[in-house]
Amino acid sequence: MGILKQTAISVLSGGPVYLALRTYALRKNPTLILCYHTLGPDNEIMDAWTVARASQFRQHIRFLRQHFKIVGLDQALNPEYKEDKPRAVLTFDDGDIGLFTHLLPIIEAKGLPVTLYVATEQIETGKAYWFDRIMNALQAPGETEVTIEFSGRRSWTVGPETGPERWAIISDILETLKQVSPERREELTQSILEQVKTQRTDFTKLEPLSRAQLEELAINPNVVIGCHSHCHNLLDQIPLDQAEESIRKSRSLLQSWTGQSIEHFAYPNGNHSPALHQIVRQAGFTSATILGQTLCQPSQDNVFALPRVLVGRYDSLKRLRLRFIGY
Questions:
Q1: Quick count: other Cβ atoms within 10 Å of Cβ 8?
Q2: Is 141 in contact with 47 (CB distance < 8 Å)?
Q3: How far is CA 14 from CA 63, 320, 321, 326, in A?
Q4: 213 phi and psi, to 5 degrees?
Q5: Taking Cα atoms as reference points, which of 70, 79, 81, 82 lies closest to residue 33?
Q6: pLDDT, tens digit, 9 for 90 and up, residues 255-282
Q7: pLDDT band for position 172 (50/70/90)?
Q8: 205 near 240, Cβ under 8 Å?
Q9: How far apart (Å, rounded) are the C-alpha atoms in residues 233 and 116?
Q10: What share of the chain is helix, strand, coil (3-state, %, to 5)?
Q11: I need a labelling partner for 238 at 20 to 30 A (CA). Which of 6, 13, 61, 134 fits?
């Protein structure tokens, strides 16, 4: 991050300037829906934006409770539910094992309402989705050269740096692979995995929840299970009949596995379209979320395209103070 940007964030995220911004942004009592992915331990090097440290999450909760009322998604969508403070909703995407090992103890200790949008294929098969397998592999020590055939030849050098620098390269690889078909994406993923010669073993890998872990999460009264599709493909890039099959299959599996009525949906990667909104509505869901990076007004916004604010490992609390009010 550049010095000018850091300075601007420092000025805007504190003191009277922040108070004025916050007062203006929250004047209509909006709802803040946050999108996390998973939590990891504090003492490991894991260069993945999707893995927030457990201590970071606890810090976020302390801040949110000062300025927002943390509520469940159903409460946030209920027009008759009133609060003196703006509402915040905590959501997590995908269904990583960190939800069980790190999030569940925090839920139990703090009584936090959360919505977990679970993608079911990886739980059914026990095999992590392509993006998690790549992130795991590219934690390799030292430098890793990665080359793929995509609109010509694309090459990256991952490492030896760690932290945001390494993540920026990994992220570029993932974004590149999102541009190809699911079948080609799997081929390229396998090619990348074969190019990684040394594996790290001193970190907690991204891997899916087990059925038993999902069921234990679902038993907690503060946990609402939502649907994130079966395939986790970008649903606006595959035929609509395949997207519908993935959505309906995931909902059916989750209902069977958890005993919950699965009423909320999150589009993988936030990719959505009016046709997908209609499919989700007809499948029996009452809401769906995207990644709009802004606050929402559930009574005014399209309930099948509710915006969420992304939160990840490299977001400082100063930056989040602004993002939590829509800046």
A1: 12
A2: no
A3: 13, 12, 9, 15
A4: -65, -40
A5: 70
A6: 999 999 999 999 999 999 999 999 999 9
A7: very high
A8: no
A9: 18
A10: 45, 15, 40
A11: 134
